[in-house]
């Protein structure tokens, strides 16, 4: 009895010591607006874009301070021993001397061939580009969340369609069972009905799996705790969003060229590259700077001072203080063609940035045109799906009546049922595809607002 009691007590103790979160995790419900907020706070791509903006801000501040002077304060202590020339005695002496020095130095660049002006302009353009890229990244993150929410909603609607199919097949199986028991139908019809029910259950399981896959994708996008349990509440598709809208491609392209922040960011990169050319050309100019200094020193060999036979440490520093001011002018004459090489490289960078801008414009135009064409196709697919569903519904009802009257086979009824289920699934996909393609147009146009992504 004791052998059985000891393991039981240990098990009870372990259960009580197990953290509550490990025993049962609460199901956290996340709405679409909450998901967008979480993504904008935690998405790593967005955090990297924010970090880039902060780095560019630091560079801009550094370029601004390049216009001002620098200031250095230095101090040193030295002990000299052995023979040295004593200025006080005017002879070579053998002694040990302690020396203390303190100096302040400052310099300012008066002219450097406009290098500091061009450097500040380059930093400002790069900072502008990083801020615009940050805004586009925000749009990317919100659009990704929206896309995954739409996919999740679609998969949930697919589950409802498949669940309805299972319920219908169960009712159909019960009815056929009654027909078989009454001898009105052969046993093979019962086998076919059982096979149809099994197929419907399998398709339901696949639809439920797709829901879990979409849940996992959202957890990854939002950087949520993978050990948590979450329920994502997606907004319903607005019926107004399914209405046909006309888009003029030429007008949409002009608007996209004006609104796409990534295109404006590339334009800022071109201007930054042009400033890089002026930075390289500044090496052809002379440079002028002003240097100033002020300091003092103390020596242990200092004797009496005029009017002071026993000077203190600060009296000696005061008596030896002094300063200097100077100008430094430099003319570049020959630098082994480094200036020419740097200027050529800077101009090549400008051309590369212009090529990238041209490619970006072509990409934007293609994305907008493709989004409009996909939207039009989605609208046509929705119209076809609605007609197909209505026809499939009438066909299934007719096949059911004919089967009940004994004028149709189980194969015809099964085929009509599958056609209706496929039509219902196609309509669900078409509805969500229209809603998605409409938002995709806003995204490709650059008008998708991260603060109100569902707004028109």
TrEMBL record:
InterPro entries: CyaE (IPR028351), OMP_efflux (IPR003423), TolC-like (IPR051906). The keyword Coiled coil applies. Its main location: membrane. It holds the Pfam family OEP. One of its GO terms (cellular component) is efflux pump complex. GO terms for molecular function: efflux transmembrane transporter activity; porin activity. It is found in: Cell outer membrane. Keywords: Cell outer membrane, Coiled coil, Membrane, Signal, Transmembrane, Transmembrane beta strand, Transport. Residues 1-24 form the signal peptide. Residues 190-217, 368-402 form a coiled coil. Belongs to the outer membrane factor (OMF) (TC 1.B.17) family. This is Transporter. It comes from Longimonas halophila.
């Amino acid at each position: 009895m004791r052998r059985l009691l000891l393991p039981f007590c240990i098990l009870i103790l372990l259960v009580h010591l197990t953290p509550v979160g490990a025993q049962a995790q609460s199901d956290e419900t996340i709405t679409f607006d909450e998901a967008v907020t979480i993504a904008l706070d935690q998405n790593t791509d967005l955090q990297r874009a924010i970090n880039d903006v902060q780095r560019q801000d630091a560079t801009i501040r550094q370029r601004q301070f390049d216009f001002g002077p620098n200031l250095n304060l230095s101090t040193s202590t030295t002990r000299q021993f052995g023979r040295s020339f004593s200025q006080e005695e005017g002879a070579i002496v053998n002694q040990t001397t302690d020396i203390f020095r303190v100096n302040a130095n400052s310099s300012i660049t008066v002219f450097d061939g406009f290098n500091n002006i061009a450097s500040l302009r380059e930093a400002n353009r790069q900072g502008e580009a990083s801020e615009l890229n940050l805004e586009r990244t925000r749009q990317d993150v919100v659009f990704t969340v929206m896309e995954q929410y739409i996919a999740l909603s679609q998969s949930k609607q697919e589950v409802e369609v498949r669940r309805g199919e299972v319920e219908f097949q169960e009712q159909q199986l019960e009815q056929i069972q009654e027909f078989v028991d009454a001898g009105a139908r052969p046993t093979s019809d019962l086998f076919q009905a059982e096979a149809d029910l099994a197929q419907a259950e399998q398709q339901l399981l696949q639809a439920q799996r797709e829901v879990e896959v979409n849940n996992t994708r959202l957890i990854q996008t939002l950087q949520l705790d993978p050990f948590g349990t979450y329920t994502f509440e997606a907004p319903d598709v607005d019926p107004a969003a399914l209405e046909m809208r006309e888009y003029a491609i030429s007008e949409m392209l002009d608007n996209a060229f004006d609104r796409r922040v990534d295109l404006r960011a590339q334009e800022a990169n071109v201007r930054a590259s042009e400033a890089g050319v002026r930075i390289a050309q500044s090496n052809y100019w002379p440079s002028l700077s002003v240097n100033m200094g002020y300091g003092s020193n103390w020596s242990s060999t200092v004797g009496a001072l005029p009017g002071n036979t026993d000077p203190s440490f600060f009296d000696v520093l005061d008596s030896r203080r002094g300063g200097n001011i100077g100008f430094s002018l430099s003319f570049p004459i020959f630098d082994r063609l480094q200036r020419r090489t740097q200027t050529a490289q800077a101009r090549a960078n400008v051309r590369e940035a212009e090529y990238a801008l041209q490619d970006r414009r072509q990409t934007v135009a293609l994305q907008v045109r493709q989004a409009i064409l996909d939207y039009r196709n989605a609208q046509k697919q929705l119209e076809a799906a609605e007609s197909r569903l209505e026809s499939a519904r009438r066909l299934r009802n007719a096949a059911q009546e004919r089967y009940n009257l004994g004028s149709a086979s189980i194969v015809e009824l099964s085929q009509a049922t599958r056609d209706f289920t496929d039509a219902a699934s196609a309509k669900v996909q078409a509805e969500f595809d229209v809603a998605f393609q409409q938002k995709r147009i806003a995204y490709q146009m650059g008008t998708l607002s991260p603060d109100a992504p569902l707004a028109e």
